[in-house]
Amino acid sequence: MREDDPAEGLTHTTETGDVQMVDVGDKPDSKRRAVAVGELHLESATITAIRADEVAKGDVLSTARVGAIQAVKHTWETIPMCHQIPITNIDTTFELCEDCIELTVAVETTGKTGCEMEAIEGVTTGLNVVWDMVKALEKDDDGQYPATRVTNVRIERKEKQRM
Amino acid sequence: MREDDPAEGLTHTTETGDVQMVDVGDKPDSKRRAVAVGELHLESATITAIRADEVAKGDVLSTARVGAIQAVKHTWETIPMCHQIPITNIDTTFELCEDCIELTVAVETTGKTGCEMEAIEGVTTGLNVVWDMVKALEKDDDGQYPATRVTNVRIERKEKQRM
Amino acid sequence: MREDDPAEGLTHTTETGDVQMVDVGDKPDSKRRAVAVGELHLESATITAIRADEVAKGDVLSTARVGAIQAVKHTWETIPMCHQIPITNIDTTFELCEDCIELTVAVETTGKTGCEMEAIEGVTTGLNVVWDMVKALEKDDDGQYPATRVTNVRIERKEKQRM
Amino acid sequence: MREDDPAEGLTHTTETGDVQMVDVGDKPDSKRRAVAVGELHLESATITAIRADEVAKGDVLSTARVGAIQAVKHTWETIPMCHQIPITNIDTTFELCEDCIELTVAVETTGKTGCEMEAIEGVTTGLNVVWDMVKALEKDDDGQYPATRVTNVRIERKEKQRM
Amino acid sequence: MREDDPAEGLTHTTETGDVQMVDVGDKPDSKRRAVAVGELHLESATITAIRADEVAKGDVLSTARVGAIQAVKHTWETIPMCHQIPITNIDTTFELCEDCIELTVAVETTGKTGCEMEAIEGVTTGLNVVWDMVKALEKDDDGQYPATRVTNVRIERKEKQRM
Amino acid sequence: MREDDPAEGLTHTTETGDVQMVDVGDKPDSKRRAVAVGELHLESATITAIRADEVAKGDVLSTARVGAIQAVKHTWETIPMCHQIPITNIDTTFELCEDCIELTVAVETTGKTGCEMEAIEGVTTGLNVVWDMVKALEKDDDGQYPATRVTNVRIERKEKQRM
Q1: Which domains does chain A have, with CATH numbers?
Q2: Which of E132, E140, E141, E142 is catalytic?
Q3: Cα D5 from chain centroid?
């Protein structure tokens, strides 16, 4: 399961410390899956509004899903040292609690390197899109965002299966 | 200071709930500044490694700075309802604590709409780039990331100044 | 109202016929608006499905709206000789008839050149996104698309107002 | 030949109607080819000008070819739910009739999902590029486009061959 | 005419040496023009082929022009510390000598920062596109490129005019 | 070792001279490697400054490395007729001489077509990024660049290995 030698330390730098991509030319193709999760804290009135909208049309979450999926596919250009890998599947799931939205993004690929950065990019971007959609509801009288924050973005599970 | 009418509710949807960009055609040009902050929690051994690298070459943080700056400039395509605005300045500052890195991104623009989404995108992407650079150090024996997480991403301050 | 001299012929080529951008450096800033319209013909069963979905969740049209809006903003890279202009507003409207969807995209800009290509790109891309979303419903037993077609994409109105 | 179960209905939504990519992880690699066709109606004087130019330099159609080819390669970002697939070949053919240009785009890939959206994107973008190149010839005295329209964009043939 | 204080040294780094964009928020808008030139050395047989093609159809140079123009417009994402500026004009000129092609790219903008990097990006990319188009002619029996090289890429002239 | 038939002439055009991508659908997968090299001539004072910075922080070269790596990955969109290929490795090496910087970029892929254009794009873009970072040091009192030039960009070695 272990992909990189712990002794390697910083795998994206050479011996002399220069930033580099990891050479994946000799790695076998594996089926890989990574699941990332994160939360966006919002005013509870905003959650109520999204919930109502979701029932009626779902536009806020639909737009966020599209943003998350596009972010997953663009990870190779957003994260400088990432390789471009063939994404075979992306699942996005939103859970609404009283004052937060939890977004889970599961990414699958068949390739030579993992897809956890893709899943993380999907989560942070998807949550940022929700934030963008509800800006007017979150701002206080001074135009500030006292409650809004993206938090607890983590990898829930990373799996690899030799083919 | 207030840019949107709180009564507007979800400014990115029409009356019938369809997702739309905000019309900024009649807004005056203003000097605007937004400062976002966030943290990446890491194993303290990773922080030590980055610190040592930083002194010696700074590559991890340099790469993350470039990633953050590019993310700020690309916000109009990452966040579907954002307008493309002329970014005049971007400042990125890293603070290292014992088991976390704090990234502050300040964005300035002269235009018709705010730049807080740009600042947030800079923070989440910059922290994700750091994560990508230290993956080998953060993974446990099972290839999982027990400690790593992006957290507490917030807008510290948003300002607008009529010209 | 006339922006280009009809005698100019092909404005994107030089005297010797080489492809070039139009020089807009000396054009004054104007408020401009262009409205493009187009239709996607579909099986009536597909329209029924979209209509039902639209009531329930609206995801097909929401995704198409996001696709159309992103296409408008990306016109400067999709159409090689287009300039990058500051888009101030984008409106997308879908009308469903018995066997077709009509998409209207209105684009507004304040700048030195018109935005009709942006509106057209919004229409063709938005309709293509709908097509992509309903592929399984449109294909016949041989995997072909006997009914599906994008048609009648035109500029409904183009306006310019000196500032 | 049938790739999707007709019973699936809208393949890009989950049971609860949320927009999603199709999971192609277990699909075998196939050689696939899709041919799309479409027309751009123009003033016959414009066709004459393009024809003359084509003989002399071909710049209008060359630029449109480049635009079509780039659009094919960018379909995975233009159409939100498309996967990125390895395009192995793109053929573009223009036919000029008295008052229209017909563009045929054939796309080939070896992969897990079809390339018809790539072919359609090539056709609509290629025709939009021609429109952009001949704007000055098509506009009337009021700056409007009475004759110009993109029409009859369809999939001529879609093929799949197990490897 | 001098835009940066020579004493500033490396304008893209802070006092502590961190990479940063230059703050252009307080710079006045100026009309700016930059002209870059460069050469691609080729086998003389290749030049003969291009010359013949150019008379007949011009496709190699047309494609290179499109590539150069797109590269100019994309400089803000290709060169990490560049700002996105409104390009108002791009001129591309090819000169063919016996064993080389010279490409001149002139870029104009009205804005707060110069456009010399845009002109240089146009030249190097345009010449690289020509190289790509004539690969089969330039390769020797061992698949190597003994003669091909991009050389002498320089800024011919940079101008600024207060408005 | 020879990939294209020399008799083919311009492989990116059809018999009638229209620009086209090369059909790689029937080419076998090979391990491929291309090494490109190029130089940026600078004032020797600039080299001294970079050298000092490199020891201390390395930011100029780090940023250029990131720019070069991103350019390699983006070649399929920068060079219109290039295919998108799976890059497995990128190595960037800078050598500083008295008045120039030499950049070597080695690119590896496993696929159906070579990666020399990717290596060349990496070299020209990486050198252009260095230029951008040291603009203030290179400009003379008139704001011109008397010494700066990108030169001698060539393919050092191209290799292919059947799998």
Answers
A1: 30-162 (3.30.70.640)
A2: E132
A3: 25
Q: What is the pLDDT of residues D128-152, one digit of tens each?
A: 999 999 998 999 999 999 999 999 9
- The answer to whether B132 is a known catalytic residue is yes
- Record the pTM: 0.93
Q: Which residues pair with F110 in a beta bridge?
A: F31
Q: What does the alpha-carbon distance between residue E106 and residue E91 come to, in Å, rounded to a whole number?
A: 5
Q: Which residues of C33-52 are buried (b: 16+ CB within 10 A; e: fewer)?
A: bbbbbbbbbbbeebbebbee
- How far apart are the C-alpha atoms of D96 and D40, rounded to whole Å? 10
Which of F89, F91, F161 best tests the A interface by mutation, with the highest count of A CBs <10 A? F89
**ipTM summary value:** 0.91
How far apart CA C159 and CA C108 sit, in angstroms, is: 9
Question: Which chains form contacts with chain B, at 3 or more CB pairs under 8 Å?
Answer: A, C, E, F
Q: Is pLDDT above 70 for E18?
A: yes
Cα separation, E70 vs E122, in Å, equals: 8
* Amino acid of residue F22: V
Tens digit of pLDDT for each residue in F22-72?
Answer: 898 888 889 999 999 999 999 999 999 998 865 444 589 999 999 999 999
| Strands of the sheet with D30-41, listed across from one edge | C87-96, C100-111, C30-41, C149-162, D149-162, D30-41, D100-111, D87-96
Q: Is the dihedral of CA E27, E29, E33, E38 positive or negative?
A: positive
Which DSSP string do the residues of C97-145 spell out, in sequence order? -SSEEEEEEEEEEEESS--HHHHHHHHHHHHHHHHHHTHHHH--TTS--
Determine contact, residues F42/F138, Cβ cutoff 8 Å. yes
Please state the rounded mean pLDDT for residues A1-21. 58
Nearest residue, CB atoms, C18 vs list E65, E70, E89: E65
Q: What's the rounded Cα separation, in Å, for the pair D91 and D68?
A: 10
> Which DSSP helix (H) or strand (E) runs through F104?
strand F100-111
Residue among D31, D90, D110 minimizing CB distance to F21: D90
Task: Kindly state whether F86 is in contact with chain A, defined as any CB-CB distance less than 8 angstroms.
Answer: yes
- Going by the DSSP 8-state scheme, the letter that residue D142 receives in this structure is T
pLDDT at residue F11 in the model:
63
Mutation choice for C interface testing from E82, E89, E94, E159 by most C CBs within 10 A: E89
| E70 vs C contacts (CB less than 8 Å) | 77, 80
Res. E134 pLDDT band, cuts 50 70 90? very high
CA proximity to A131, closest of B30, B21, B154, B126: B154
| Paired tokens of C25 | 């450096």
